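To the wet lab folks,

You asked to see what we're planning to order before we commit. Fair enough. Below is the target structure as tokens, and below that is the sequence we designed to fit it. If anything looks off to you, flag it before the synthesis order goes out.
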């Protein structure tokens, strides 16, 4: 074997950090650009849902605008018009009056 063949074989067969560095960098980029902001939004949405109280104006995922009439652990009653009340899950709430885009 020639010296060039040995050098190429040694360079390609050496495992090390340099082989995994691109994967680590790609994971880091995905984490800071996609995963971390999504987790932050999810925590903020969960906090908004748990802090709902009677009288808050909310918008559901389906686009219904209403006012919280009564609360339960898992559900709430929305007043959407005079004498019209709907029972919806808390998870169906997209935004509250404190958020932009709410009623």
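Sequence we intend to order:
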């Amino acid at each position: 074997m020639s010296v060039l063949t040995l050098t190429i074989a040694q360079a390609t067969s050496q495992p090390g950090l340099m082989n995994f560095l691109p994967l680590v960098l790609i994971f880091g980029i995905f984490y800071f650009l996609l995963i971390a902001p999504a987790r932050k939004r999810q925590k903020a949405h969960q906090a908004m849902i748990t802090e709902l109280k009677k009288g808050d104006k909310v918008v559901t995922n389906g686009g219904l605008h209403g006012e919280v009439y009564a609360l339960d652990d898992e559900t709430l009653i929305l007043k959407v018009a005079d004498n019209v009340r709907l029972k919806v899950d808390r998870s169906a709430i997209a935004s509250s009056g404190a958020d932009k885009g709410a009623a």
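Structural context that might help your review: The chain is about 45% helix and 25% strand. The longest strand covers residues 65-71.

Thanks,
Computational group
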